[in-house]
Amino acid sequence: MAICGYGQLWSDGWWGRRSPVRIEYVVELALTPERRSELLALLDDSERLQAEFPKVKDYLDTSPTLAGTGNMQVDAAFELRFIHYTTGGKSVSPNPYWDLLSPFVSDHGGRRVVNGGNPDGSARLAYAQMQLQAIYAYAVPSPETIEWISMFCAGRRVVELGAGRGYWAAQLAHANIDVSAYDYEPPDKTENVSFTSGGHQEDVWYEVGSLDDFERDKVGWSDYVLFLCWPPGWGNTMASEALAAFEKSGGSRLVFIGEPKGGMTGDDAFFDGLSSNWRLESEDAQFVSWWNLSDVAQAWMRR
Fold first, then answer.
1. What values do phi and psi take at 217, rounded to 5?
2. pTM metric for this prediction
3. Sign, CA torsion 128/133/135/141
């Protein structure tokens, strides 16, 4: 059943009382009668929602207090998609993060950004952003960016360090790229403050090994493309250490997704190392960012 125009969902507990929530949206979302019934039952059971999908419950409790984009139809469309995809709703592709966000991407200032059609986004969208980054990944993997990475790799295997939940690794694997993913704190094996357990939501989307696993597996690392997606910043030396080890092994291709020097990703030594020993091969013009971030997708080659 295709739901469009106006719909109405009832929730018990979003504002502490049984309240009708009118969902107005302009982006068509196909829901089967069974899925609609599932959502209605879930939203009508606050305790179950908290137990199974705490991040969704937190968003729904908080979002009514925050300003939207100024377009009620867009805000309601986003909220319906948020609820559907983050509670296990069927995705039209292997990339639910993109399926959720793609209708709300606009061209602004020469960039593709998730802003709901408002150049300034909204406080409500920013709160959803935090929840979605914790569920999926910090950066948004559009199909165009996955294709751009595939072209740069040209059949080479990929090793991702700092993979988080492995969401980007999963998208690369769906594109038939041979990828190995590792993280200092694999979310399904140890506590990770950035990617906490989320009830019935996935702890990992792809197998994520530990750094001990990486030390065991990294034979022939020079043949790989190193993938760093939002490596930690704020003085954390993970990015520069990974780059130095990759250089020492003879590695020659790097994909970096994050903010420029001085931003929230990478350390100064990492960017200095890129400037000294690497050349920028290409930058993905189709990369999609959140409107309030300045991250980019870059491909680098060893000088």
1. -95, -10
2. 0.90
3. positive
Do 119 and 158 fall within a single domain?
no
Instruction: Clarify whether residues 129 and 251 are in a common domain.
Output: no
Instruction: Say how far apart CA 173 and CA 153 lie, in whole Å.
Output: 13
Which residue positions in the chain have pLDDT lower than 50? 1-26
3-state secondary structure of 71: coil
Pair (44, 73) in one structural domain: yes
Amino acid at 290: W
**CB under 8 A, 24+ apart: contacts of 181-187:** 181/206, 181/207, 181/208, 181/209, 182/208, 182/209, 182/210, 182/211, 182/213, 182/214, 183/208, 183/209, 183/210, 183/211, 184/210, 184/211, 184/238, 186/210
As for how many domains the chain has, the answer is 2
CB 72 within 8 A of CB 116: no
| Range of the structural domain that residue 106 is part of | 2-135
Cα 69 to Cα 120: distance, rounded to the nearest angstrom: 8
Please check whether residue 11 is in contact with residue 67, taking contact to mean a CB–CB distance below 8 angstroms.
Answer: no
pLDDT in tens, 57-107: 999 999 999 999 999 999 999 999 999 999 999 888 999 999 999 999 999
How many CB atoms neighbour CB 113 within 10 A? Answer: 21
Identify whether residues 171 and 291 lie together within a single domain. yes
Query: Is the backbone of residue 16 left (phi > 0), alpha (psi -120 to 50) or beta?
Result: left
Distance between CA atoms of 17 and 116, rounded to whole angstroms?
Answer: 29
pLDDT per position as a tens digit, 133-162: 999 999 999 999 999 999 999 999 999 999
CA gyration radius for the chain?
20
260 near 296, Cβ under 8 Å?
Answer: yes
CATH of the domain at 160: 3.40.50.150
